[in-house]
Amino acid sequence: MQRIGVISDTHGKVPGEVREVFADVDFIVHAGDIGDLTTLNALKQIAPVTAVRGNMDRGTWAYMLRATETITVEGLVLYIIHDEGMMDLTPETSGIDAVIFGHTHSACIDCTGPVMRVNPGSATQPRGGAASVALITVDAGEIDAEIFALPIERDGPKHELIKERHCKG
User: What is the largest CA-CA distance in the chain?
Assistant: First the structure.
């Protein structure tokens, strides 16, 4: 079993609650609009990171990142891109089991087709909802994804499960 922390659209900030939600992950995926190298380094203090460049990532550090990444986890293929609309392939016919993306700042998990789609939302600048991150679990050919809200008010819960979906890979 592998647990993956998924984050996007941090724009130079990593809320402290991310460390709590990602405490037991094997690695982290950042789906772009990172903001700066300090943000990547902060995430690397939690777990190893695979990241893609977002449309707002600029500078020498950003151009060292690819626009897309493909990783295999327990035999399942995960495709990572910042803006899902910029894909130059069809996941359903490319052997991809899940697409991880960002850009919209709105969290979603879609299992309606053969390929799971996960957008963790934005950890710092949400649109139409709470700041959020996602956890993906890959186990025995199955993918589970959960979206966790990060607190807006300090007196609330540290993190709250707001969306959960299960897809068989």
Answer: 47
